């Protein structure tokens, strides 16, 4: 019985480690997925990333209906002031383009804006392991993911990562 329990604990540990692992690149599924831009065009995620290559980039996955997202907006704006040479890409999980665009305007979000076509349970969200929003991903100048999973309580960590990237 002890061997069975030990084996099950090992499986749980491996499973949890894999699900929270730091990724350094996006999956082919994520790169191929298209997102809606503010001009109502579909743009491949890979194209969005290539537009930001050469700059450190913060990706925020959010939604206008998300209370934690709205609560974190002053912090993202502070980051934008402190790290003005960093690009900011906002990817919305809103259900309609009208709500998404109204949220951008209402909260005066500065950066590049896109909306997932199939929200939180869709292909893009699953491909980048979104299980909570707001979610932040940081990519360095070379296009490598340096912070894959951060949430609204991780702004000190996000700031520290950006400070480190700016020294490089």
Automatic annotation (TrEMBL):
Claim: Ion transport is one of the keywords in the record: no
Biological processes per GO annotation: cytochrome complex assembly
Subcellular locations according to the entry: Cell envelope
GO molecular function annotations of the record: oxidoreductase activity
All copies of domain Thioredoxin, residue ranges: 24-167
Keyword Transport: no
Gene3D superfamilies linked: Glutaredoxin
Organism: Flavobacterium commune
Cellular component GO terms held in the UniProt record: cell envelope
Keywords: Cytochrome c-type biogenesis, Disulfide bond, Redox-active center
Family annotation (InterPro entries): Redoxin, Thioredoxin-like_sf, Thioredoxin_domain, Thioredoxin_ResA/DsbE_sf
Short name of any one Pfam family annotated for the protein: Redoxin
Organism taxonomic ancestry: Bacteria, Pseudomonadati, Bacteroidota, Flavobacteriia, Flavobacteriales
UniProt name for this protein: Alkyl hydroperoxide reductase
